[in-house]
Amino acid sequence: MGTSGILASVTLLDARIGHIIKRERRRKKLTLVDLSLLVGANHSTLSNYESGKRRVPPERVTTLAQALDIDPRLIDPRADQDGDPPKVRPEHTPKSNTAPVDVSALVCAPCRKGPKTRGN
Predict the structure, then answer these.
(1) Domain that holds residue 7
(2) Tens digits of residue pLDDT in 46-78
(3) Of residues 18, 76, 20, the one with CA closest to residue 49
(4) Which of these ranges, 10-14, 24-28, 49-53, 87-91, has the smallest mean pLDDT?
(5) Rounded distance, CA 43 to CA 39, Å?
(6) Range 98-113 burial, b when 16+ CB lie within 10 A, else e
(7) If exposure means fewest CB atoms within 10 Å of the residue's CB, which of 4, 50, 73, 76 is most exposed?
(8) Would 92 be classed as within a structural domain?
(9) Which domain CATH number covers 47?
(10) What's the pTM?
(11) Pick the residue with more confidence: 50 or 113?
């Protein structure tokens, strides 16, 4: 399947899923390379997920959620909770000196947009 087939099948939900993945990755202060090592995917593939250029397969939703330490349904409301948990590669877990952040405090309820940040 060429690029046009991938782009034609991407929906508004895919763009939303990509936005959430990017927001949660940034919240955990992970680079695309860090996250790619955790989930066993190429960093360019993850970038395409985040930009909404590529659909995230259901099995990858669960892996990403585990790596980001969030409920898979936060990424994709259609996520299935009944499957076996995927394997995150713990030997690639980045060290973080930051405390967990309550994401709900970062989201403006009227506009549903988080704070503007710089960086990746």
Answers:
(1) 1-78+100-120
(2) 999 999 899 999 889 999 999 999 999 999 888
(3) 18
(4) 87-91
(5) 10
(6) eeeeeeeeeeeeeeee
(7) 4
(8) no
(9) 1.10.260.40
(10) 0.61
(11) 50
